C-alpha cells in the first residue's frame, strides 16, 4: 500500500488533494497546526476506513526540526506532498517574518526526509507562478524554463516579498537536491491565480484563499460600480492543481520537473460576465454589463504542454470553475 504525507492539510489546495489521494486508495497522513483542524478533516470523511486517513500536528513549519517527528512513520512513507507554507505574517521585517520562514519551511522538510524517512522516493513541492513571473519585463512566452529574476535586495520591498519568498524557497529546494543528493527526487507545481470551489468543512467566507476573495466580493455586490484591476491575467482550477500534485507522484517521468500548471487567460470582467451567465439571479449585485475590461491588447503567451503531456492534466473550462466556485460560496452564505 502506498503511503503519502501531505503537509498543510487544511489549506485550500491541500483539501482537494486529500480527496484525490483517498480516491486513489493511498494511505494519507496530513500535517495540521491544531487538533481541531485535524479532527475536522477526519470527521469530514466518515466513510474512510480507520487508519486510512490520519493527522499529525506541526504547529510552525518554519521552526528548526518542525517536521522531524512527522516524517517518521510505520509503515514508512513513500511520497511527500509539501503544500504547507509558513503563517501569513504582518511583515515588519521581510527577512525574519517572511523570507526566512518560507525558505526554512521548504528546506526543513527536505532535511527531515533525508534524515528520518529514507523510504521516500519523491517530494512534490507547491511552488507558484510567482517563482516564474518577470513583472519588469514579461518574456514572449512563459514556461517551466523561466525564473523570476528577483534579487534578494528587491525582495526586501514589501510589495515584492511574497514573490521573492516563493522564488527563493523553490530555488532552495532544487539546490538541496543537487547538493545533498538524497534518496528522493522532487517535482514542483507552479500555478498562477487559483480559483475553484471551497471545501466547506475547512473554509468560511472570512478564510478564503486570496484568489477566491474577488469572486466573493463580486457576488456580494462590492464591485457594483467598477471592477478592481485584475492583476495577473492567468488562472487555473484548484481541482486541476490538486490533481497535478497527485499525478506528480504517480507518473514516473515527473521526477526532476517543474510544472507550470495554468489553464488560460481571464480578467475580472470575464468573471463578472460568467457569473451573469451562470447565476442570473445575482444580476443586481454585479457591475454593469458594459463595465470596462482591463485585459491588455497584447499579452505574453503561456505554455502548459508539460503538464498535459507528462501529468495528463485536462484543464477545466472557465465557466465550470466560476459556476462551481459561486455555488460553493453561496452554500456558506455569500
UniProtKB/TrEMBL annotation:
<dbReference type="InterPro" id="IPR001509">
    <property type="entry name" value="Epimerase_deHydtase"/>
</dbReference>
<protein>
    <recommendedName>
        <fullName>NAD-dependent epimerase/dehydratase domain-containing protein</fullName>
    </recommendedName>
</protein>
<keyword id="KW-0560">Oxidoreductase</keyword>
<dbReference type="Pfam" id="PF01370">
    <property type="entry name" value="Epimerase"/>
</dbReference>
<comment type="similarity">
    <text>Belongs to the NAD(P)-dependent epimerase/dehydratase family. Dihydroflavonol-4-reductase subfamily.</text>
</comment>
<dbReference type="InterPro" id="IPR050425">
    <property type="entry name" value="NAD(P)_dehydrat-like"/>
</dbReference>
<dbReference type="GO" id="GO:0016616">
    <property type="term" value="F:oxidoreductase activity, acting on the CH-OH group of donors, NAD or NADP as acceptor"/>
</dbReference>
<feature type="domain" description="NAD-dependent epimerase/dehydratase">
    <location>
        <begin position="4"/>
        <end position="253"/>
    </location>
</feature>
<dbReference type="InterPro" id="IPR036291">
    <property type="entry name" value="NAD(P)-bd_dom_sf"/>
</dbReference>
Amino acid at each position: 500500500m502506498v503511503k503519502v504525507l501531505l503537509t498543510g492539510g487544511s489549506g485550500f489546495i491541500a483539501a482537494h488533494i486529500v480527496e484525490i489521494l483517498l480516491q486513489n486508495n493511498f494511505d494519507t497522513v496530513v500535517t495540521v497546526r491544531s487538533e481541531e483542524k485535524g479532527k475536522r478533516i477526519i470527521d469530514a470523511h466518515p466513510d474512510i476506513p480507520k487508519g486510512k486517513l490520519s493527522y499529525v500536528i506541526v504547529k510552525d513549519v518554519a521552526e528548526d526540526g518542525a517536521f522531524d517527528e512527522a516524517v517518521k512513520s510505520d509503515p514508512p512513507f513513500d511520497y511527500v506532498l509539501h503544500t504547507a507554507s509558513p503563517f501569513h505574517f504582518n511583515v515588519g521585517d521581510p527577512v525574519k517574518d517572511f523570507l526566512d520562514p518560507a525558505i526554512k519551511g521548504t528546506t526543513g522538510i527536505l532535511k527531515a526526509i533525508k534524515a528520518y524517512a529514507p523510504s521516500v522516493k519523491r517530494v512534490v513541492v507547491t511552488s507558484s507562478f510567482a517563482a516564474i513571473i518577470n513583472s519588469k519585463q514579461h518574456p514572449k512566452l512563459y514556461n517551466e524554463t523561466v525564473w523570476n529574476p528577483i534579487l534578494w535586495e528587491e525582495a526586501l520591498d514589501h510589495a515584492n516579498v511574497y514573490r521573492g519568498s516563493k522564488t527563493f524557497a523553490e530555488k532552495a529546494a532544487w539546490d538541496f537536491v543537487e547538493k545533498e543528493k538524497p534518496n528522493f527526487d522532487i517535482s514542483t507545481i507552479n500555478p498562477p491565480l487559483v480559483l475553484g470551489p471551497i471545501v466547506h468543512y475547512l473554509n468560511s467566507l472570512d478564510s478564503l484563499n486570496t484568489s477566491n476573495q474577488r469572486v466573493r466580493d463580486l457576488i456580494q455586490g462590492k464591485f457594483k460600480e467598477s471592477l478592481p484591476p485584475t492583476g495577473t491575467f492567468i488562472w487555473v482550477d484548484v481541482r486541476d492543481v490538486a490533481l497535478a500534485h497527485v499525478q506528480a507522484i504517480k507518473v514516473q517521468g515527473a521526477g526532476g520537473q517543474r510544472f507550470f500548471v495554468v489553464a488560460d487567460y481571464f480578467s475580472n470582467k470575464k468573471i463578472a460576465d460568467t457569473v451573469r451567465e451562470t447565476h442570473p439571479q445575482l444580476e443586481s449585485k454585479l457591475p454593469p454589463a458594459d463595465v470596462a475590461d482591463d485585459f491588455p491588447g497584447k499579452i505574453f503567451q503561456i505554455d502548459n504542454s508539460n503538464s498535459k503531456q507528462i501529468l495528463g492534466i485536462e484543464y477545466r473550462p472557465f465557466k465550470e470553475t466560476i459556476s462551481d466556485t459561486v455555488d460553493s460560496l453561496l452554500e456558506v452564505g455569500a
